[in-house]
């Protein structure tokens, strides 16, 4: 959404904030979300967020890829069974 708001405000400098908000509200976004994106644009903050600190994921890329392949190629499987048996935690 931010990229689209930034591009819309950048391309057509004559658009008012309310016009941008009405356009995105018709697409199903909330007014406050659109106004937050407009405010970020006016202040000059970057479009993308910076990486956040926090606990790393317990899934590594190999386990995630294996689970995705099994989900795509299997009919009638149990998510719980696959997450418990196939993708083990790293110790």
Automatic annotation (TrEMBL):
Protein's name according to its UniProt entry: Uncharacterized protein
Q: Which organism is it from?
A: Rotaria sordida
